[in-house]
Amino acid sequence: MELLDSFSIGLSVLLGWKPILVIVVGVIVGILAGAMPGLSPSTAVALLVPFSYTMEPALALILLTSIYIASNYGGSITAVLINTPGTPSAAVTAMDGYPLTQKGQAGKALGTALLASTVGGAIGVMILILFAVPLARVALKFSPADYFALALFGLATVASMSRGNVLKSMVAILFGLMIKNIGIDPISGVSRFTFGSDQLYDGFTLIPALIGLFAVSVVFAKMESWTGIPRVLEKVDNKLPSFKEMMKIKMTILRSSVIGTVIGIFPGAGATIAAFISYDVSKRWSKTPEEFGKGSLEGVAAAEGANSSSVGGALVPLLALGIPGSATDAVLLGAFMLHDLVPGPLLFKNNPDIVYGIFSALILANMIMLILGVYGNRLFIKVVSVPEAIMYPLILAIAVIGSFAVSGSMFDVAACIGFGVIGWLFKRYGFPVAPIVLGIVLGKMVEENFRRAVMMDGYSVFYTDKLAFVVLLISFLSFVWPLYKGWKHHQSVNRSKVKSQHN
Amino acid sequence: MKKNIMVLFVALAIFAGCITTVQAKEFPTKPIKLIVYTKPGGAIDVFARKFTAIAAKYTDATFVVVNKSGAGGIVAIKYILSQKPDGYKFAAVTKSNIGKIVSTGGKINVDDINWMGMMMTDPEAVITNVNQDVVTWEQLVADAKAKDGKQIWVGPAAGGNDHIMALKTWKAAGIKAKWIPYSGGGKAMAALLGGHGVAYVGNPRDVIGRPDLKVAAVSSEKRLSGAFADVPTFAELGVKGLDHEIMWRGFMTRKGIPAEAEAFYSDLLTKMTNDPEWKEYIEKGGATPLLIQSDAFTAIVKKDQREFTTALKELGVIK
Lengths: 503, 319
What we know:
The structure holds 2 protein chains of 2 kinds.
Chain A (H helix, E strand, L loop, with lengths): L1 H13 L2 H19 L5 H12 L4 H26 L7 H13 L3 H35 L3 H13 L1 H4 L4 H15 L2 E2 L6 E2 L13 H19 L18 H6 L1 H16 L4 H16 L11 H25 L5 H12 L6 H6 L1 H29 L7 H20 L2 H19 L5 H24 L3 H4 L1 H37 L1
Antiparallel strand pairs in A: 1-2
Helix pairs in contact in A: 1-17, 2-4, 2-17, 3-4, 3-15, 4-5, 4-6, 4-14, 4-15, 4-17, 5-6, 5-13, 5-14, 6-12, 6-14, 6-17, 7-20, 7-22, 9-20, 10-18, 10-19, 10-20, 12-13, 12-14, 13-14, 18-19
Chain B lengths: L1 H23 L7 E5 L6 H13 L7 E5 L6 H9 L6 E6 H9 L9 E11 L1 E5 L7 H11 L4 E4 L5 H13 L4 E4 L3 H9 L5 E4 L10 E6 L27 E9 L4 H15 L2 H9 L3 E6 H22 L4
Parallel strand pairs in B: 1-2, 1-3, 6-7, 6-8
Antiparallel strand pairs in B: 3-10, 4-10, 4-11, 5-8, 5-9
Helix pairs in contact in B: 4-10
């Protein structure tokens, strides 16, 4: 019952109008910042760190963690409505969310994203509260070889992500991996392919690249096909998913939430990888995998359930050990330090009010997010009715501001436009862009951990380390299986064609 | 009576005139930007924000902390050097920036920079995990000899301050080990906690709030006070030449700022150094508050630059 006692302390922190106001403000800021391309969860939290400096420590951290949890949902709004992921992990949401909007079912997509985010967020926080300390210990046991295997498993999801041409997806993922090679070598410290430019020293920043590939490319494509004839608006359906539809995706949400939390726990993995892996797994379990990528509610739920639950997971190493598990965690660690607090085992002992205050606030933040989301969605959905002649210039403007906002650099804006051209060319010739993001996000994790593993124990580690070996085997099979199935399908189609010709 | 009033007015006018001429030379008359080379939340960001919060005791000047991240501080330093030398922009710097100046090809001339003041030094420390068999310095050396070059040390980026400290330590102690770099101290500490390496190189403050970690040896002349009083120095352990391996933090701006700005900062930094709250913040982490200004600071920077150049050439990071 120790937990209950601790919770009563935590809940007492939330009494009064101030904490509630702080959570509401945090959730609103989080949703809006998440929806704004360029403001990733870590940037949104970072922007509010100075603001929270003068607040009481408990309130300050409640504000920041509320922003963190809400921003992952916010990212889905622009991903669904205008195919511009507001956060990196929403790139996965866009794959099914935007097709739904094109079919006039934006309401259903947003509703599913909200539901999955709320349930996912809550499950992530529950796991955090109940098992933070033991889980953190287990995560630490993972060696570089295991991380490499996990990252490769992430890359293998490309096979199931590609509709149709696997070769084109492979080209896209290799392009992403190549982009990630630019910048300082993470192991030796030597700069690679920077051509002496300071801006390239850290490589291309993910967010401007993401905005370029997804949003700016669409603007370019529209310019090319511009007819000037106003689009005839089909009726935009802002209906939420029906109860029946919700029941249909309940298993997907639950599964994705567990996947998201578990992947969130590993320092350095994060929401984006969680969303990609969960999408892949959900597609395999789905009764209607052919719907994925064409507007599947399951696809939206898989991505959003995973990225929101990863917040709870990422807070595990931060709170239990003082080790930041994600970029946002690193910012939160700074916020703790500003208030002379050090997260870790001693925080549970010395400041239970803060730890359990954060826990209680996270649960409440999820509920508030659900309420605000239901009302907010009715408003957000109006975006779809904006005439194209206004919409596309606006997307371009937001893209430019968003890329600039990341670190106040014009180079990022130029990079965003450059990636826009690349994205446009890719789409024009039928290459998907999502695998590029997968390559950029996972490239570093794959490379660093491979090299670390070899430096530590030599190449034999990949079969002497049992866990790494098993995961590598699974990644290989999960990559080859869809290819084999696709090939067989192709064969049988060919055979039937041949037969019909003979007849 | 009227005459008296006239005299009074004249006197007042002269007095007011004096004030305005003094004001023309006063600094600052507008907000000052303090540039931080990382995103918000890093250790140097906390350092800068603490500085501005405590500085409010001594000056009415408004400080705005601006984060300009990129290339390990090169972006921030170049930004300062590209601004007007009016004294309204200065930046927080650390020793690792000097390493970056060297590793990015020395395009920045340290003589263009006004090294205003080094405000704290943080001794380097070798940290171990109490849950492993190797905890004390003696055990670490014995284990290294037994493993014959296969002992694993973890830490942040290759070619950084901590990596170079590790290389110096191995040389001084006559042992061999492997350096496995991680992207950032946090992840390296996670590797130490998980038992993937036996030692981590960082600063004493890294073990605060992490009861599983312990400082095995510290590279200061004398033992540290407070929570670190039982930590032996390298000299005590018989390892020579590691009495003054430090990480420092301080402030810089570009050369040529007006004399009144120079005086303002010099005065403020001196007052800050003596402030009890500032001292407490720095000492709590096992660091030493101090103030080393202009020429003496520049000399240290140049010495660091030479050391980084030699070390990074040996590592093959630069040619």
